[in-house]
Sequence to fold (162 residues):
Amino acid sequence: MTPMNGGERSSKRQGALVHQYASGLNTAVTGNAQAFGFSTTITATFGAISLDEGSLSLIELLAFAVSAIAAFSLLNLLVARLGDEGSNAISSRTLLIGTATDFLSVGAGLGVAIGLGQLLDGWLPWALGAFGASLVYVLVQAVEMTLGREREQNSRDDEARA
Fold:
């Protein structure tokens, strides 16, 4: 065994630091990806409806918040009813692939909110815009996750054949 010189140790140390950084980045991205997309959607929804409707009342603010939560609650009940708890564990690779296209789910959710804001007046855009944006964001993101999982499986199949 040959002793390592200073350059080899420095190179190994740098490689270890790069690996640690990549691991931290993976954790930061995968741990926040879905929340980041939803936060962007609901914040942009609030802004879009504000542009259409102007300042809001306390009732409209409550309607906005409660309806955004209601969409998630409805979907949680649906998933619980379908009994699909076993397949909810996805790999970080699937999550990264799926959320790489978050502009689709964010755009779809925001598009629904903008459309409802154009069609409705009063407190309805606040309530239905938040509900619609939340619902559509999650439904489209589920498609993105499905495609991400499919892409990951195809990659594994390709590697197994090679």
